[in-house]
Design goal:
With about 375 residues, the protein is α/β, with parallel strands linked by helices. Helices cover about 35% and strands about 10% of the residues. The strands form three sheets. It has a seven-stranded mixed sheet with strand order 1-7-6-5-4-2-3, sandwiched between helices. Strands 8-9 form a two-stranded antiparallel ribbon. The protein has a two-stranded antiparallel ribbon with strand order 10-11. Strand 4, helix 7 and strand 5 form a beta-alpha-beta unit. Helix 2 runs antiparallel to helix 9, helix 3 packs parallel to helix 9 and helix 10 packs parallel to helix 13. Bound molecules: pyridoxal-5'-phosphate. The site of pyridoxal-5'-phosphate has 15 residues, from helix 4 and helix 5.
Length: about 375
């Protein structure tokens, strides 16, 4: 008998069930500690993140958007950037990347992606360069490292900072190290933002994030900004925020971070399965496999369904009980909050991809059998005409 049980896109309860005993023990430890903001759990997580990424400084913060906001704001407070300065970003990203730049009074300058990888097309960097450019903010989208010789040379030649949006790419490694010697996502450039939103590869049981950096001064500014702008008690050097990481989330994250290799390996296995099973499937464009497996942690496995058929294909899969998702249906530059800033003609490739992308279940809890069923069903419905 064929299995017709529904396949969810991502079942977070199931994903965390594997660690339930450890998570409960860690939660009890925090409850009993009497320390509910900051303290040893947060410091231990920061130490784990330094060890993982190779960056010498890590600051736990409230979420991934705040991690990015705090980095940008810190550079402004430090005088490294000033309002009106430009930051080159991929047009094809989650809106948080844009919001963080805007929030500091900086100007996002979007660049079209390479459709094979979905990441910022580094061949287009020089077109975006102006005298006001101060930084490049690559996003390792869907978990794939965005780092190559062109990007490294571009930032070196032009004296630009590199701030990484590593919200989707914890544990991914570049073949070539960044200028500070680390190969790890978030530590390739000057500073990186991590998100531990529950759906991310390492997810908290709520909101959480972190900044990692090679810059001691930036780390201190981020830490102060996240704590009302205080560098010590009742001494506020900035008009800051409250963007601290809760120890309860730090404790959850330390449990899950210890399993990062098996988490990411599972995603790599499922992605490789999809790649093989969808080989030759008509009407489905697979994502390029990375030259080096370490360069991708498959936060999402995203295919393209060209020809205006994506929504129909998604609907037919749903009718078979197979849930998929879209990352992202509307790119940042076409969101209502940016009305008047860009037009729909400005970034045609990004706009087109938004209508073609389809994310298949690849997360923890998705079994290899489910991957096979999804791939078979997708190959079937995508091959049907019109
Ligand atoms: C999730 C995400 C963020 C924001 O992280 P939060 O923790 O949800 O605030 C930023 N950028 C990208 C690319 C993301 O996927």
């Amino acid at each position: 008998m064929t299995n017709t049980a529904n396949i969810s896109f991502l079942d977070l309860g199931l994903a965390n069930a594997a660690y339930a005993d450890e998570l409960k023990a860690a939660a009890c430890r925090v409850i009993d500690s009497g320390r509910y903001v900051g303290g040893a759990e947060v410091e231990a997580l920061e130490s784990d993140l330094r060890a993982l990424t190779g960056a010498p400084f890590a600051v736990g913060v409230s979420n991934g958007l705040d991690a990015l906001r705090l980095i940008m704001r810190a550079y402004v407070e430090m005088g490294v950037m000033k309002p009106g300065d430009e930051v080159i970003v991929p047009a094809n990203t989650y809106i948080a990347t844009f919001l963080a730049i805007d929030d500091a009074g900086l100007v996002p300058v979007p660049v079209e992606p390479d459709p094979a990888t979905f990441n910022l097309d580094t061949r287009r960097l020089s077109v975006a360069l102006t005298p006001r450019t101060r930084a490049v903010l690559p996003v390792h989208l869907y978990g794939r490292i965005c780092w190559d010789g062109r990007l490294a040379e571009f930032v070196r030649q032009n004296g630009l900072k590199v701030i990484e949006d590593a919200a989707q790419s914890i544990g991914a490694r570049s073949t070539a190290p960044g200028p500070h010697g680390s190969c790890c996502a978030a530590a390739l450039g000057d500073a990186g933002a991590l998100s531990f939103y529950p759906t991310k590869n390492i997810g908290a049981l709520g909101d959480a994030g972190a900044v990692v950096t090679h810059d001691e001064q930036l780390a201190a500014a981020v830490r102060a900004l996240a704590n009302y702008g205080a560098d010590r008690r009742y001494h506020n050097i900035y008009r800051g925020f409250n963007c601290r990481l809760d120890p309860i989330q730090a404790a959850m994250l330390r449990v899950k971070l210890a399993h990062i290799d098996s988490e990411n390996e599972g995603r790599r296995r499922r992605a490789a399965l999809y790649d093989g099973l969808l080989d030759g499937a008509a009407g489905v464009v697979r994502p390029a496999m990375p030259a080096d497996a370490a360069g991708h942690v498959w936060h999402q496995y995203v295919v393209r369904i060209p020809g205006g058929r994506r929504d129909a294909v998604q609907g037919m899969l749903r009718e078979q009980g197979i849930m998929t998702d879209i990352h992202y249906a509307v790119p940042p530059h076409l969101q209502p909050c940016y009305e008047g800033r860009w037009s729909s003609a400005d970034l045609p490739l990004t706009a087109r991809l938004a209508g073609e992308v389809l994310s298949l279940p690849v997360g923890t809890g998705t079994t290899d059998d489910e991957v096979a069923r999804v791939a078979r069903a997708l190959a079937d419905v995508a091959s049907r005409g019109g």
